[in-house]
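I'm stuck. Protein, please.
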Amino acid sequence: MAHKPSIPKGTRDFSPQEMAKRNHIFDTIKEVYELFGFSQIETPAMENLSTLMGKYGEEGDKLLFKVINSGDYLKKVSADELATADSTKIISKISEKGLRYDLTVPFARYVVQHRNDIQFPFKRYQIQPVWRADRPQRGRYREFFQCDADVIGSNSLMNEVEIIQMLDKVFTKLDINVVIKLNNRKILAGIAESIGYPEKLIDITVAMDKIDKIGPDAVYDELRGKGIDDDAIQMLEPFMNLQGNDTNQKMNCLGEFIGDSAIGNRGMLEVEEVFDRLKAFDIKNEVELDLTLARGLSYYTGAIFEVVAKDAKMGSISGGGRYDDLTGIFGLKDVSGVGISFGADRIYDVLTELDKFPKTQLKGTQVLIVNFGKEEEKKAVKILTQLREEGISSELFPESAKMQKQMKYANHNNIPWVILAGEDELQSGVLSLKNMESGDQFKITIDELISKVK
């Protein structure tokens, strides 16, 4: 028996109808990015592991897909090393490349590699797939698209304000009601300092980032496992449970707690400035200060963003933040950047759940010409050419099959208009046009047809 074909878990095929919906998302995001002055680049699917490793924290490194070297990939591994079955040591000798985990680190590599060709501030966007060796579940895939925008080479908080504007505009255009959550890693550093564990900032942020997935008690257990005592955890609880969108109340509570922490106060000032500048713009969606928002990626140093849909059960559908020296790991020091990423796959699931995709988003063939035979086909080709020259997506059925088969083809592909043109109609230039939705059929000239379809 032949082996039944399949695809890896966490990956998907997309039908023409699904691709039309996905392109609706991509086109909306791309339109907003370009409206704000961002230009498109692309980077390879594979990067050197030296580029990727160590940039996403310990957990992120575990989720990198490694690519085995071509040829005799075991030639650098001794029999003793194989016998130890230590995959961590062996992988460095059998794999030099990996699939990209996100688009931000490859972008940092791009900036350093092409620094003589770009002008700062540099505003770029990318819409490409990324890969993570994660456990597949609803809204979480091993292969998925990210839609990133970053501006690098500028410290101005106006960039954070523009990112919030872009988030708001994209989700307004997609008709998804969202909450745009904002926090600052400097504030989190101030909290870590105030509870007596400044050196545990990464452990604290990685744990806090899971609060929506595993709940506060499990987060506290993880913090204990990282060596943080119960007194410090008790001090964290007010921030873990501070709800609502009263920014002033949260800032007052935060100010009392952080006290004279220099880094914490810098973070508070940055947040206050962003909220103050936002007052000049008509933001449609709610913008909330969320002090539990941490985002586990270790390279964020300032503002952090996350977006959740109000009306759908889904995790984050967009996120990002400020990174002060991401390019420094590649030799270009003190170049600050800030960016966001839209999770296209999760946005797709939200739009599907809420039934918010436009009903006419599938732009396929508009007109099908029925094929009655070789002689009719020769004349029908002229009509086909004329329609296409007018920018009307058109097809001539490739063979003179039974009428039922040709009509079934039109129905299956959602083609709204069908031309039935036999020898007499082609001679006279008066065609029979059928509306496939209503079933109505009427006589029409080619010029009238072009005008009607357009």
Summary: The chain has a mean pLDDT of 88. The first helix runs from residue 16 to 35. The radius of gyration is 28 Å. The domain at 16-354 is CATH 3.30.930.10 (BirA Bifunctional Protein; domain 2).
